[in-house]
Amino acid sequence: MSDYSYFGGIDLAKNHFSIHVVNSKNKVILHKSVTRSNLLTTIANMPPMRIGLEACGGAHYWARTLNKLGHDARIMAVKYVVPHRTKGKNDLNDAVAICQAVQHASTRFVPVKSPEQQAILSVHRMREHWVRERTALMNRIRALLSEFGLIIPVGRSSLMKQVPLMLEVAENELPHLARTVIADAYDHLEQLNQRIADTEQVFDSFAKVSDNVQRIMKVRGIWTSNRNRHFSLDWQWLTV
């Protein structure tokens, strides 16, 4: 049984937010859309309640902000909201479904993250982006060189060693324009390597102060000794 007499659901957006609030007897107290600038004023005038939010961009920020107003904001995955959507999909109907889901006993909630926890996840996401970009760039460099009969062995280290050598050899068939383009791509590749290395330093520092990471390090077979050890783990879980 909940300690709250009021329950709300907010469909988050960039500029307009839909709100649905009911009491413990399921009587509708509020059902409307408000602008971003009016959201907090509207919620601040409501009695303390449990408020449901769908997990999406900005959900953790809004959960923290609503909690500061004395409410109990809960974030949930969309899969818990869908079964409660009985009408056509629009923002207000979504707010109704979220409000119903936050009251349901089977709904599981996502822990609200602090700004610091979100920051480390931001670093992790950027690293993933740069790793994908690096892989695509290496494949592109290999493909360009292969057009001129120049083949590089498998592996990033081989590519990093061989490309400068190939660019320096005057006897191969690489035209000046191709050398310039590939040299620029190689410079960008080095920049990506440095950015990825910098994020690893951030994770090294984080691992030293994170209780969750320290516990994982004690489990045999999970935390390996290589430089990429942090990135096989689920940072979404580690920052809970």
Main traits of this protein?
Nucleotidyltransferase, domain 5; six-stranded mixed sheet; alpha/beta; 240 residues; 51% helix; 2 domains; 8 helices; 14% strand
Number of strands: 6
Q: Any low-confidence stretches, pLDDT <50, length ≥5?
A: 223-230
Q: Which structural class is indicated by helix and strand composition? A: alpha/beta
Relative strand content: 5-15%
Average the pLDDT over all residues and give the rounded result.
89
Query: What's the N-to-C terminus distance?
Result: 26 Å
Radius of gyration: 26 Å
Can you list the strand order of the major beta sheet? Answer: 3-2-1-4-5-6
Contiguous helical run count: 8
InterPro entries: Transp_IS110-like_N, Transpos_IS110
Protein name: Transposase
GO molecular function: DNA binding; transposase activity
GO biological process, one term: DNA transposition
Folded structure, characterized:
By secondary structure, the protein is of the alpha/beta class. It has two domains: 6-110, ATPase, nucleotide binding domain (Nucleotidyltransferase, domain 5); 115-238. The protein contains eight helices and six strands; from the N terminus they run E-E-E-H-E-H-E-H-E-H-H-H-H-H. It has helices at residues 36-44, 59-68, 91-103, 115-146, 156-168, 176-209, 211-217, 235-238; strands at 6-11, 16-23, 28-35, 50-54, 72-76, 109-110. The chain has a six-stranded mixed beta sheet with strand order 3-2-1-4-5-6. Helix 6 (176-209) crosses helix 7 (211-217). The longest helix is centred in the C-terminal third of the chain and has 34 residues, at 176-209.
